[in-house]
Amino acid sequence: MKTSHFIGALLVLASAAGCEREAAPTAPHMAANTATGNADGRIAFAVSSKIFVMGEDGSGVTQLTPPAIWIDDDPVWSPDGTRIAFRSTRDGPYYDIWLMNADGSGVTRLTDSRPFNTSSSPAWSAGAAWCGDRIAFHSNRGMGNDIYVSNADGTGVTQLTNAPGSDITPTWAPACDRLAFVTNRDGNYEIYVMNPDGTGVTRLTTNTAVDQDPAWSPDGSRIAFASRRDGNSEIYVMSADGTGETRLTNDPGRDGTPAWSPDGSRIVFTSDRAGRDDIYVMDSDGSNVSRLTDGSTGGSYPAWFAPAPPPPP
Ligand SMILES: [Ca+2]
Ligand SMILES: [Ca+2]
Fold first, then answer.
1. 6-24+43-304: what fold?
2. Who's near 155: CB < 8 A, 6+ residues apart?
3. Mean pLDDT estimate for the chain
4. Distance from the CA of 246 to the center of ligand 1, in angstroms?
5. Ligand nearest to the Cα of 192, by number
6. Is the pLDDT of residue 32 over 70?
7. Is pLDDT at 312 greater than 70 in this prediction?
8. Where exactly are the structural domains of the chain?
């Protein structure tokens, strides 16, 4: 469900490099509530290309992936909160999707795009229904970036899009009946939706600016996204059919990667309005903005755990 700063990757790398000077936790403490599978109220995020978790009030920041030269970022939760998918260059130099337990243990590879291709932007099916434990992602293993889906055990990899242009950052609707994604197939980056089998592709946004980072509200009725249509990146929300676009943020900083709270009342996002990437939260109408990450960490790529019903017996 979470997206990446894919289009602004260079900016993100520059920002991440700037964060390297900051002191990172050196002795990560493991969060007992995630180790036992209860991830309620937890937000996973990235700091300086390492993955962390914290409480939804910004407390209990815990580092999950080790200090290392490779990149780990863009985390998303499994439907039961016991695992996290993320992208990593640990077998680099190119990105692949990896999985780990919610306490950082048990790291395994999901995709293998070696030697020359990348896979990024994992989206784990979760939300209103049990959706079969599938992970969508984008990869350039074909002709340019396209959307793929894989079972969480790595089997059943299926290519969903195969059109000119770059199709990136898929995210599941909560009922898993649709996927939103971003593509420049019509000349500039817009937000599209499609059925889970790749049919029924429909464009939702229409303007000349970059539109990216779609995120479904937990009830499936709305999609939050980021757009530069008003001069710099801001968070917007629209109905799931593309109508009623409304701006939520209004700040000269770069605001992006929105993700909803499980009850839909709040939206967490990344902003550099205080000078570098930090995680902020606001009410879903754009009011009551507050910063979650303090000056010692910063952060980007927030993913708010939303519990899904268990699989049928
Ligand atoms: Ca656009
Ligand atoms: Ca802004």
1. Neuraminidase (2.120.10)
2. none
3. 88
4. 15
5. 1
6. no
7. yes
8. 6-24+43-304
Residue 272 confidence class, pLDDT cut points 50, 70, 90: very high
Which ligand number lies closest to the CA of residue 231? Answer: 2
Tokens of 194: 């499609």
* Two structure tokens written together for 57: 């009030």
pTM strictly above 0.85? yes
pLDDT of 56 above 70: yes
The ligand placed nearest to the CA atom of residue 203 is: 1
CA distance 177 to 113: 27
How far is the centre of ligand 2, averaged over its atoms, from the C-alpha of 232 (Å)?
A: 5
pLDDT 10s digits, 109-167: 999 998 889 999 999 987 777 788 899 999 999 989 999 999 999 999 999 999 999 99
| Closest-approaching ligand to the CA atom of 233 | 2
Name, in order, each residue with C-beta under 8 angstroms of 254's C-beta and a sequence gap of 6 or more: 8, 11, 232, 233, 270, 271, 272, 273
Q: Which residues contact 162 (CB under 8 A, 6 or more apart)?
A: 142, 143, 146
**16 CA distance to ligand 2 middle (Å):** 19
Compute, in angstroms, the gap from residue 155 CA to the centroid of ligand 1: 34
Give the SS3 label for residue 34. Answer: helix
Q: For residue 59, how many other CB atoms are within 10 A of its CB?
A: 10
